[in-house]
Known about the structure:
By secondary structure, the chain is of the alpha/beta class.
Amino acid sequence: MPEAPPDDEPALQVEDLDVTYGRAVSALRSVSLTVPHGTVVALLGANGAGKTTLLRAVSGTLRLHRGAVTAGRIHYGTTELDGRDPVAAVRAGVVQVPEGRRVFAGLTVDENLRSGGLGLGRRRPDQVARARERVFTLFPRLAERTRQAAGLLSGGEQQMLAIGRALMAAPRLLLLDEPSLGLAPQMVHRIAEVVREINAQGTAVLLVEQNAGMALSLADTAHVLEVGEVRLSGPADELARTDAVKRLYLGETSGEGAETAQRAGTTEGQGAA
Length: 273
Ligand SMILES: Nc1ncnc2c1ncn2[C@@H]1O[C@H](COP(=O)(O)OP(=O)(O)O)[C@@H](O)[C@H]1O
Ligand SMILES: [Mg+2]
């Protein structure tokens, strides 16, 4: 397992980041945020705000989507990430769990897990065994289903497998893209517990969620993205008390206007889906 960075070193620093798709579509503008070592940072925002784009920039997968960093910097400890090199990101300890729990449906649970961390090249068998052990301790249901085709798992189990596969690379920073999307409340609760547990084991987490209640209950700090820009940042508990977050993201209706704002949020979400 790679060594953890020193405690006083920020895990991730994004500075004034601009990202563009194709030649013209600006998806992020001057976005800055920090994920301090060992913390959980939540990134909230409506559909199309740029949350996934930020994770792609950090994990080096932008180019796969015809996107590019056009300004700004991404530092991870002493490594500079450029948005175009997923292997460099994995080697630095940064691993993304993509949205939509994309597991290999035709492969078994075990084969899916073994595909995690391939970018790290040849690893010692005991390192791989330790990573597997960690996954099975977190997700006992996967341990019971190692030979089952991933496509036959429930949605929640597939999300667990997607997270488990990422953990096989022994990340120091885990990027999670909407892990709760489309899951039953009980499973959302279970995913939240797992994120807490992974973090308690020393892995920093950048958590993208539309389920603001869940994300803010887990996070140390949080940022709200709106059409490509950071609109609000602060300690998660403080953000959860601000009117804008309550109205738009926690679904609390306080007086006139709130409902309209909520409806507007929903419509925007569908438009960009
Ligand atoms: N591959 C792509 N090509 C062109 N535009 C894209 C691509 N992916 C995302 N976008 C656009 O970038 C913006 C941000 O998208 P995204 O990061 O997926 O938002 P979120 O994850 O917050 O829903 C949106 O306007 C979206 O339409
Ligand atoms: Mg997204």
